[in-house]
Design goal:
heterodimer; A: 161 residues; mainly alpha; B: 252 residues; two-stranded antiparallel sheet; 7 helices; 4 strands; 65% helix; 4% strand; membrane (chain A); cell membrane (chain A); CF(0) (chain A)
């Protein structure tokens, strides 16, 4: 087996050390840091982009929260206004209703009073007319003028019936 | 059997250019060549992938980032935040082992798998071991050696456990190296054996080619399996390296 030939050892080991030294100190050291740098750059870029996105999201969330709160506040204000308006409307209609009712009652009372007065007028007119006619009738029948008080008395008695 | 049918021949080391430094043999071999090929492949992948890095990556960058993220995940999972500084090291280990494993799977007579040689895997494992030892000593000083003393154990029992801990610590580079080398060698031997069957059965005189199809199909399936093993072994190597690093960084 050539692997166990002692004469083969030294040249190979020396050349391996030479080759590995060139690889490590020249090739890898001159190229790999460039790659590492760009990988770090990428990581930094991704991290900063992610941070920016997270910040933007947080801002948007805060804004949305604010808008929501404002909306809620506005809704409450609107509801309060509606309640107020409702109460106001109820109040005013009630008072108008009361006024209208009072007016109507007043009118009715006045009308009733007018009717009662008309009735009374009619009655007194009727009495007058009835007394006069009764006086005239009695005068024609008896040729004697009856006393006014007797006629009135009789008319009153007849009307009371 | 002819020499070319020997399943071990694929692991042979050929000296391409004999070199020697103060008497030590450091010849440039086919193994070294393929390590450099792996290095070239990794370099192309890394350089194109990071040519102009963008926040929105292109194809090459995305592919490279996929591998990088994978390694970062392994280190992060096993070491934690303190492991960030060691990502380039684990990344280097991972891509190097992976590239060597994968290059050896090219179905070509000239391809060679450096990680099928224990010399290569042992050297890599020793690098990891030395780094772990240094990181442990630098971070914790000699306090690092309390690592061998099992925590929360009655001392007579701990006295028995300690030598086991010591041995298991110092045997780490060898298990790391042997695991990778054995997996690669076994897989390539298997591929080679079935490949010789293709030739042997396919050259049956009465009905040529037909019987070669079966071992060929097996080899195709085995290649898929070997691809998986190549990936898994690179992952295991990187994973164990980061677990060992964790011991050195976050002393228990």
């Amino acid at each position: 087996m050539p692997q166990f030939e002692p004469a083969n050892f030294l040249p190979q080991m020396v050349w391996l050390v030479v080759a590995f030294a060139i690889l490590y100190f020249v090739i890898v050291q001159s190229t790999l840091p460039r790659l590492a740098r760009v990988i770090d750059q990428r990581k930094a870029k991704v991290d900063s982009d992610l941070a920016a996105a997270r910040k933007a999201k947080d801002e948007a969330d805060a804004l949305a929260e604010q808008i929501k709160a404002e909306l809620q506040r506005n809704r409450e204000a609107a509801l309060a206004r509606i309640g107020e308006a409702k109460a106001e409307a109820a109040n005013s209609s009630e008072s108008r209703l009361a006024a209208a009712e009072a007016e109507a009652t007043g009118k009715t009372d006045a009308a009733e009073a007018r009717i009662a007065k008309a009735c009374e007028d009619a009655r007194s007119e009727l009495r007058k007319v009835a007394s006069e006619s009764a006086q005239a009738i009695v005068t024609r029948l008896t040729g004697k003028q009856p006393s006014e008080s007797a006629v009135t008395k009789a008319v009153d008695a007849a009307m009371a019936r | 059997m002819a020499a070319s049918n020997n399943p071990m021949e694929q692991f042979a080391i050929h000296t391409l250019k004999p070199l020697s430094v103060s008497g030590f043999d450091v010849s440039f071999t086919n193994s070294a060549l393929w390590m450099l090929v792996a290095l070239g492949g990794i370099a192309i992948f890394l350089i194109i992938g990071t040519m102009k890095p963008e926040v929105i990556p292109g194809r090459w960058q995305a592919a490279l980032e996929y591998v990088y993220d994978f390694v970062v995940g392994v280190v992060d999972e096993n070491v934690g935040p303190k492991g960030k500084a060691y990502v380039p090291l684990i990344f280097s280990v991972f891509v190097f082992v992976l590239a060597c494993n994968l290059l050896g799977l090219i179905p070509w007579v000239g391809s060679f798998t450096p990680t099928s040689h224990i010399a290569v895997t042992l050297a890599l494992a020793l690098i990891v071991f030395v780094v772990v030892l240094l990181v442990g000593l630098i971070n914790h000083g000699f306090h690092f050696f309390t690592f061998f003393w099992p925590k929360g154990m009655a001392w007579p029992l701990a006295l028995f456990i300690m030598p086991i801990e010591v041995v298991s610590f110092f045997v780490r580079p060898f298990t790391l190296a042997i695991r990778l080398f054995a997996n690669m060698t076994a897989g390539h031997v298997l591929l080679k054996v079935f490949a010789t069957f293709v030739v042997a059965l396919g050259s049956f005189d009465l009905i040529p080619y037909v019987f070669g199809i079966v071992p060929l199909a097996v080899n195709v399936a085995l290649s898929a399996l070997e691809l998986l093993i190549a990936l898994i072994q690179a992952y295991v190597f990187a994973l164990l390296a980061s677990i060992y690093l964790n011991d050195a960084i976050n002393l228990h």
